[in-house]
What does this fold into?
Amino acid sequence: MSEIAKLAARIFKAASGKDRFIVAVAGPPGAGKSTVAEELAALLHESSSVVVPMDGFHFDDIVLDARGLRSRKGSPETFDAAGFAALLERIRRREPDIAIPIFDRGMELSRAAAGIIAGDTRFILVEGNYLLLDEDPWRKLAPLFDLTVFLDVPRFELERRLLQRWHDHGKSDEDARAWVASNDMPNVDRVLGGSRTADIALRN
It folds into this structure.
């Protein structure tokens, strides 16, 4: 049985008797959170699960420019953390037909109401870098999760993956290395050094 299949089985067991079960899939940039969340959703049956990406709450570049944060895009300060928490609270209350934003990496912006969570969706897989960050306002998310998972990936492998990601997005090697060194790796170190211990650590 694969590690993802074992994790899905554990989620099923932990969710026994619950109509809604919210799982945090956390980890640093490049850890593979979206891939793991999608694989879990498939194993938990797509009709009863949905993936909620934290990246949908990126501030737009216009806002980042106004705040002088464009060069730190992806850091905790460049997200609408309060809006994200409000969404999770609505999900916890099982409101019907909750619209969620999805970040479009091709366009580098969030598309509002790009997904819907039905009131009877049982498994909510929330994925993002800062779900377990032990800093305000992020630590306020803690009571909103039923189970937390942290993807454990060596730092050197994260750097390799991030460089490849930007190469795939068309950046030159020089630009990719500069962005990873100045922006991505500081975010990696903040997650690795400042996250609370998860219920489950998954080597990825």
About this structure: The first helix runs from residue 3 to 14. Residues 71 and 179 are 9 Å apart (CA to CA).
